[in-house]
Amino acid sequence: FFTADLSVGDKNIKFASTFASQYINEVADHTLRITGADVVLVINLEQKKVSYRKKDTCSLNMGKIAQKWGDGGGHHAAAGSALTDNVLAIAEHFKPYDVALRSTGKEGDQG
Q1: pTM score of the predicted model
Q2: Cα 72 from Cα 81, distance rounded (Å)
């Protein structure tokens, strides 16, 4: 997993990203739970696509994020886009997530 705290409008949102080519919803749910992120980007390198999912408590509109970042679309809770240069530029802000830190309680239980 990879995570980043990104400003979206006037909010600081915790994002996570991971890679998958199938079971996108299940992978997204698992990633949100493990990392405690508000939003997850599931990147499919084979198809050059990105799926956007969020926690129920997050107010961001995934359809608008997908449109802005990757010229895609969708609805409030789930969306998709192409893996564009803009998405890759945003991905540069992500750092590897240390699952061991979460198991020690050093990051707190946000999931």
Answers
A1: 0.86
A2: 4
